[in-house]
Amino acid sequence: MDGLPLFPQQASTAAGPIDLLYFWMIALTIFFVVLIAGLILVFTIRYRRRHEAEVPQQISGSTRLEIGGMIPLLGLALVTFFWGAWLYMDLSQPPQDSLEIYVIGKQWMWKSYHPDGQQEINELHVPVGRPVKLTMTSQDVIHSFFIPAMRVKQDVLPGRYTTLWFEATQTGVFHLFCTEYCGTDHAGMVGSVTVLDEAGYQDWLAGEGTDPVGMGSTQDEGQALFADLGCAGCHRMDGTGPGPNLVGIFGETVPLEGGGTAVVDENYIRESILDPQAQIHEGYQPIMPTYEGQVTEEQILQLITYIRSLGTDANQSDSEQP
Amino acid sequence: MEADPHHNPALGHHFETLEQQHDTNILGMWLFLSTEIMLFGVLFTAYILFRVLYPEIFIASSHFQNATIGAINTAVLIGSSLSMALAVRSAQLANRRALLIFLAITAILGSVFLGVKGYEYYEHWHEGVVPGFQWTNTELEPRAQLFFFLYFVMTGIHAVHLIIGIGLVLSLAFRSRKGSRYLGESFLPIELMGLYWHFVDVVWVYLFPLLYLIGRH
Amino acid sequence: MAVPSIALNTRRHYLNVNYGVKSWLLTTDHKRIAVLYLISITMMFVIGGIAAALMRYELLTPAPDLVESDDYNKLFTVHGIVMIFFFLVPSIPAVLGNFLIPIMIGARDLAFPRLNLLSWYLYAIAAAMTMWVMLSGGIDTGWTFYTPYSSAASPTLVIPTAVGIFIAGFSSILTGINFIATIHRMRAPGMTWMRMPLFLWSLYATSIIMVLATPVLGITVLLLAAERIFRVGIFDPALGGDPILFQHFFWFYSHPAVYIMILPGMGVVSEIVAAFTRKRIFGYRFVAFSSIAIAVFGFLVWGHHMFVSGQSAHAALMFSILSYIVAIPSAIKVFNWTATLYKGSISLATPMLYALGFIGLFTIGGLTGLFLAALAVDVHVHDTYFVVAHFHYIMVGGTSLAYLGGIHYWWPKMTGRMYNETWARFAAITIFVGFNLTFFPQFIVGYLGMPRRYHYYAPEFQVLNVLSTAGATVMLVGYALPFLYLIPSLWNGKSAGPNPWGAAGLEWEVASPPPPENFAETPIVTVGAYNYGPVEEKIG
Q1: Which chain C positions have a beta carbon within 8 Å of B16's beta carbon?
Q2: Which of A57, A131, A316, C367 is 20 to 30 A from A307 (CA-CA)?
Q3: Bridge partners, A136 (sequence order)
């Protein structure tokens, strides 16, 4: 990796199309810079001042030329805009079948939580050829999650979840940078993204990937927390409690008190834990207390992972179990 | 241009005519007020955003405002605007006595407003609704601190404007106590003062319903 | 006291009409205030430059070796704050605008001379506060002050800095009010809007932004300070506040502020190009109105700083397309300056070197701005060195070259003396070369993915950083040179005479340096700007 690289690796499905747009704009830039600099050079030589008292002929301008010049410029601008916007819409919509990983940023480290319970610090292991969706939040200030080789970046905010997704196209180890200034060791908030082939990824999941830093799995921690905080008292698995049954609720669209609906996703669950009165499931009383200040971001993610593991509408049958 | 422009002490050396000087100053004051509108605009934008986000919290919090006192204070401030307008008129008519009286009334009413505002702040302190310093109230949820933060910032900045206004009114009154200063054709500073004073009042006319009267239909 | 109606006595001018510290510190003469600004802005530029140099030398190697991380963070913060609020924003308006606006429109002074002096005092107080902050612990939030880092986490002197910026903002607002009122009401008889030099159009557009955008920043930094004092506030997510709201408020000023910084530079370039081609500016009306268009559209694009902040995709689309539209008036200016060269009588004197350098570098800066407006590409390059390179092409390659060009163009008018042309050209070329060597590699290292505001970095970025530091060294030499020939020119420069360049414009009709009252009699204007001869040819 040493030496003088001039162009970043292309390691995701997004990299190629984004680079193509980049090259298009480089071509535009070169064209206009050569045009302007060339004209300046030619005019400066051709029309250099020959004697001190020289007065050139005066030209006032040309409305036709101005308008005629503006239209192609506007055309080029719009083409570039639509191109960039089209790729951006792609980046902002993660595929349905993505591998879902949670990430917490804090001064000055990244922690990631895999669906099967593996946790990592400043590292992220992902499989090649599968879309990966990161749902991210910050425990303190704003950070930004950036993998140059994948051409993806997303600010990571305290108090809400943001997402990004990518699909790696080659195996290898790539830089992970924090790109939103976050204090003293901002430059140290870096890590690596390791892309493994499917076999290697399964090995990693089974082997060293499990419990690398001496913690239990996210889901187990979440289950324990669900019991400790007394959630299970109201949110009973058989649906007889005063709170909604959470089995199979993740990803569902639920009706709200006072009209409207909400999709039960990470942001909804987070809000329901911290500000339960904000959006209440229809048919339930506003009796849940807030857990603001009692749970950390990490614990909220553990709870979400646990609730998620209770099944989605795809595997409702799991809800038979206690 | 043939006339010496320096014959009139009310005319600045760089202006050609009194009319030019007058128009330029009025334009300058309006530009300054447009700056002020943008400044308060930020606060109103933040207010609207959070009121839409947390309507119940804003309603619950505004019940800690005493609407009667607020209404009285609004009347006091509108009265001060009236007296300011009369001060401008007195200056135009070159009536020094009336000018001094109306400037004094304006300053007094402005001070009364500040006094009442201070009393309200004192009450809020005892109710424990001062975020960061005295938040002991248990009826309100913690997020109500947002409302009170905005309340103190908005009314505080308004009060600072009023204090500056009172200072300027008093200094104009002091300088016009003798002679013919600000009288007749040199009434411009009084007129500029009036524009500023009315602006500060108008801001309050918006603040009052937004902070005191939410949820009282 | 009475002004003699005979020809001006060239021995009596604004510099020698009276002496002593008091005559300067209590002056209301717009020309003296311009000189006060020139001195204070130069001091701030040196301080900001030293911070930049220290950063570049730290980045010579990938490892942290010259300074501690906290100090590095304070360096880029002070560099940003000083260069933006205390150099770029006031530079051309407060020095050149102050000096020239009344003279260019045929007035004796700005509309509000005492307010003008107050502007300078506010500037000086704010600058002193910022220096005090720097010496007593510093601030490490970056010039962008993003919450909640600035409101809840940073252990540094955020509150006094915020107050300093609030005060500097009011200095800027008062300058804007003064300029608008002056241009509206103080023009000499016959000086119609369409006869005004383009420099005035651009300052008029700049002043609109100053008056309408600056208060937004002022109140936003005060809200930030209040949030630190109350320990609760509207930007803190812990109690339901929104940190993104801060970014919206901040960029609502700080994007238009980019135009506060570049529009006056465009105005200076229009003046210089006209003078050193001895021609009217091609498409005067288009260049004039493009300034206003930039000022208006500039208010609608702030969200393009926030494409990866978590704002909605729809908002991102709107801000992206508007950013493309605001590029059009800038392109119009570039093409019209170039077209002005056509069939001109081109002299490559020092100011013209700066102006041509501006056109080239601004073109690169503007076009690379389009990379950042393209949503998908911005996701990759946002907050990398690509952005750093882009805005330095605009701010240093653009504004500061225009500022130096303007200083060299009007130096004979301000001082009555000529400087050493050979040294001046050498300095201009040195700055141009050093600038490109510094910032061009940053485009590459940015696309490679090197984030900005990094105290240390991955080793594969080193070669490009070494090039950048080498360029900064060249630029440092280039910036030192003008001190060495401009200051001595005050004593031993050749006498300039009223119009050393053979340029058109009211400022070249008064003596150099101008008399205190500018004009003994109010001039009556009968011709438009750049009146080098009758229009002989119309194209199209």
Answers
A1: 522
A2: A131
A3: A103, A162
Helices (H) and strands (E) in chain A, counts: 7, 13
Residue A250 is given by DSSP the state: B
Q: Give yes or no for a contact between C431 and C408, defined as CB atoms under 8 angstroms apart.
A: no
Mark yes or no for CB contact A61/C282 under 8 Å.
Answer: yes
What is the spatial distance between Cα C350 and Cα C404, in angstroms, rounded to a whole number? Answer: 9
DSSP 8-state assignment for residue C281: P
Q: Cβ of A225 under 8 Å from any chain C Cβ?
A: no
Q: Is the peptide bond before C148 cis (omega within 30 degrees of 0)?
A: yes
- Cis check for the bond before C337: say yes or no (omega within 30 of 0): no
Judge: C280–A4 Cβ closer than 8 Å, yes or no.
Answer: no
Q: Work out the average pLDDT over A275-295.
A: 82
Q: Is the dihedral of CA B83, B86, B91, B96 positive or negative?
A: negative
Distances (CA, A) of C155 to C76, C139, C170: 16, 8, 27
Integer-rounded Cα Rg, in Å, for chain A is 27
Contact C449 A148 (CB under 8 A): yes
Of C73, C286, C343, the CB nearest to A184: C73
Angle at which helix A297-309 crosses helix A218-228, to 10 degrees, equals: 100
Searching chain C, which residue's CA lies closest to the CA of residue B4? Answer: C2
Tell me the pLDDT tens digit for each residue of C128-170. Answer: 999 999 999 999 999 999 989 999 889 999 999 999 999 999 9
Which pTM was predicted? 0.91
Taking contacts as CB-CB distances below 8 angstroms, the residues of chain C near B6 are 1-2
* CA distances in angstroms from A179 to B70, C79, C380, listed in the order given: 48, 19, 11
Among residues C14, C189, C520, which one has the least CA distance to residue B4? C520
Instruction: List chain B residues with CB under 8 Å of C110.
Output: 14
What ipTM goes with this model?
0.91
Interface membership of C244 toward B (CB under 8 Å): no
Instruction: Give me the numbers of helices (H) and strands (E) for chain B, helices first please.
Output: 6, 2
Instruction: Kindly report whether the peptide bond that precedes residue C513 is cis, defined as omega within 30 degrees of 0.
Output: yes
| Among chain B residues, CA nearest to C30 | B14
Q: Which residue has the higher pLDDT, C300 or B4?
A: C300
The first and second tokens of residue C519, run together, are: 């004009």
Sequence letter at residue B99: L
Give the separation between CA C224 and CA B157, rounded to whole angstroms. Answer: 14
In chain C, residues with a C-beta closer than 8 Å to the C-beta of A158 are 148, 237-238, 243
Query: Is A73's Cβ below 8 Å from some Cβ in C?
Result: yes
Query: Are the C-beta atoms of C171 and C126 separated by less than 8 Å?
Result: yes
DSSP secondary structure letters along C162-194: HHHHHHHHHHHHHHHHHHHHHHHH-PPTT--GG
**Residue B30, class by beta-carbon neighbours within 10 Å (0-12 exposed, 13-18 middle, 19+ buried)?**
middle
Q: Kindly list the distances between the CA atom of residue A141 and the CA atoms of A106, B80, C244, in Å, as whole numbers in the listed order.
A: 7, 47, 12
Q: Please write the tens of the pLDDT for every residue from B89-117.
A: 999 999 999 999 999 999 999 999 999 99
- Tell me the chain B residues in contact with residue C14 when contact means C-beta distances shorter than 8 Å: none
The beta strand positions in chain B, using DSSP E, are 129-130, 134-135
Residues composing chain B: 217
Decide if C537 and A81 are in contact by the 8 Å CB cutoff. Answer: no
Decide if B34 and C211 are in contact by the 8 Å CB cutoff. Answer: yes
Residue of C nearest to B40 (CA): C219
A84: nearest CB among C320, C336, C342: C320
Look at strands A123-127 and A172-178 and give their pairing.
unpaired
Inter-residue long-range contacts of C11-18, CB under 8 Å, 24+ positions, other chains counted:
C12/C515, C12/C516, C13/C416, C13/C511, C13/C513, C13/C514, C13/C515, C13/C516, C14/C513, C14/C514, C14/C515, C14/C516, C15/C415, C15/C416, C15/C513, C17/C515, C17/C516
Residues in C 460-519 with any Cβ partner in B closer than 8 A: 517
